[in-house]
Amino acid sequence: RDSVNQTEGPVTLSEGALLTLNCTYQTTYSDSYHFWYVHHLNKAPQLLLKGSMTNQRPEHEGFQATLVNSDSSFHLQKQAVQASDSAVYYCALNDTVREGCGGAEHKPKGSRRLKSVRGIFSP
């Protein structure tokens, strides 16, 4: 059965600190897609990063994730967090081609394999 695992609970960091959020997964498909979503308070969740075999190190707005198939991981990092980065971060795994969920990257609630971790950053 496919799944994702995020071990962190609430994370508190000072501004400028390195953020690392761990995500490991299990899947039977070699062509699966991996996602990080960000959910800021009073806003809808937004796609932050999407990784795949053809894009194993996606980057966006200072965030980056590295897809490592050998240890089934897709960890999220940001070199220097800001207070504005405080949010809930979701790691998701979705084999969109096989399940026919083409819009999944825009609708995180549609993913069955979704777990969250809250990042709380203080100055």
Give a structural overview.
It is a single chain. The protein has 123 residues and is mainly β. The chain has 1 helix and 11 strands.
Q: Please report the total strand number as a whole number.
A: 11
pLDDT < 50 stretches: 96-123
Biggest beta sheet summary: 5 strands, mixed
Beta-strand percent range: over 45%
Overall outline: globular
Class per helix and strand makeup: mainly beta
SSE series: EEEEEEEEEEHE
Number of helices: 1
Percent helix range: under 10%
List the helices and strands and how they pair.
Blueprint: E1 3-5, E2 11-14, E3 19-21, E4 24-26, E5 33-39, E6 46-51, E7 59-60, E8 63-68, E9 73-78, E10 87-94, H1 96-99, E11 114-122
Parallel strand pairs: 2-11
Antiparallel strand pairs: 1-4, 3-9, 5-6, 5-10, 7-8, 8-9, 10-11
